[in-house]
Amino acid sequence: NxxxxxxxxxxxxxxxxxxKRILIDxxxxxxxxxxxxxxxxxxxxxxxxxxxxxTHYHHDHIGGVHSVLKTFGDDIPVYKMTKNQDEVDAEMMMxxxxxxxxxxxxxxxxxxxxxxxxxxxxxxxxxxxxxxxxRKTNSNSTECLADFKTIPNGMIFETDGATxxxxxxxxxxxxxxxxxxxxxxxxxxxxxxxxxxxxVVGDLPSYMKSLNRLLDLDxxxxxxxxxxxxxxxxxxxxxxxxxxxxxxxQILDFxxxxxxxxxxxxxxxxxxxxxxxxxAAERNVIQHLLKLKDEGRATEKQGTW
Length: 305
Prior knowledge:
By secondary structure, the protein is of the alpha/beta class. Helices cover 41% and strands 15% of the residues. Helix 4 links the parallel strand 4 and strand 5.
C-alpha cells in the first residue's frame, strides 16, 4: 500500500522463533497481504499466529485484522491500547480533506485531457476521443471486526525466542504504542518514528515526551511502521526532536513577520510541499500553534494567528 502517507507501504512484523509467533500490525487489508504473510511464515517455518499486537488505530495498521483472523483463526487474541474518539473524528476529517484535494486535482487533469482530445478532433475529424475510464474506489473505514484486548503500559508479551514490552508513546495518536524487544534491545516504533521522512503529529507535547522516552531506551535497532529499518535509532530520534524544534522556530519567525491562518503558515514554511499533503502539514502546524499559545508565545483570533 505505497503512498504519500505510507511511503513504501505499511511494515508488519512476525516476532519470535517458534512455530507460533506474534504479528505486529496487519496492514490496511490489501488483497495481496495475506499471500505475502503466508509466504513469509513458510519461509521462516512459522505455522500459526499466537497473537496480534496493533501499534495504533490507523487503518493502514488495523485494516487487515479481519482478513488475518479469517485466514488463521478467529480465536487469535488482538491487543491494542484504547483510543480517543474525538481524535478519530478529527483524523477522518483530515483524510476527507486529502481525498477532496486529490479529487479536485484529478478533475482538473481530466478537464485538460478532454480539452486536448477536443482539440485533436477539431484538427483531425476522423479521430474520436476515447472515453475516460471511471475509477471507483471504496472508502476505507477505521473500523475493523475484532474485539481488542486493552494493553496497559509496560505489559509483557512472551513467545518462543522473544519478549516484548509495551511502551506507551502517544502523540502521533492517543493510543500509540511502541514495543521493546528485550532480547535484541530493539524497538518496533509504529508511526512514532519512521524509516524516512517525518510523521503526522496529533498532540505535540505528548509526542515530544514519547520521542524522549524512546531515546532513553538506548535501542540498537528500530523497526518502523513505514520505511527501512533504522540501525542508529538514537541519531534518528534526535533528528526527529531537532526537526520539531526547527519547525517551531520557523513558525515563530513567520508570526514575528506578520500574521495568517494555519494554512498560510503551511504555505510559508513548507516550501515546495505538494498541495495534497497540505492537510497533514497543517495538522502539524496547528499542534505547534496550540503549544505556543499555551506557552503564551502566540495568540489566535477567528482563525488568524
